[in-house]
Model the fold of this input.
Amino acid sequence: MRGLIMESKTSEKGEAKLLDSATVNIYTSDRKYLVSFNSTKKGKCEFRLPLNSKFIIEVTRTGMVTKYLEVNTTVPKEKRAAFIFPFTIDIFADIKGLDVSILKKPIAKVNYSYTNDHFNYDYTYTDRINNDLKKMYKDFYFMQTIDAENADSLKPKQPNHPPQNKKNR
Done:
């Protein structure tokens, strides 16, 4: 698996911000811990999963929400090979009061597609969860705007002095 971990909030230039040092934890489907590692400075991670098992991939970082990806590596016996599956996960700052309970479920499920002869997203599941995620993201961006406005209102204001003319100096 080849992953790219990004921050949902874009930079001032409008570019996605890659997240270094995001933690990637891999668990079995029954939540037994297997391994943990960090993304690179460019937000990349790469790892191998054995075939014919189910895994939960957890992506997290201090001060940010945690997201999960479920991967089922079961393939037909005649298709045993090395597969590469690229994925991108974006995480965002944990905002007090934001309901992120939907993120306790995997944001996507990946499994072998017999039709396409490679791994792919379970689009039925993804469509269903995306409807719930849209509401959460709408709330996130709204709360982020409120936080930014509150931060601006707390900044000390510069006093307004009328321009002095040279005679008053």
In short: The longest strand covers residues 2-10. Residues 123-154 form the longest helix (32 residues). The chain is about 20% helix and 35% strand. The mean pLDDT is 86.
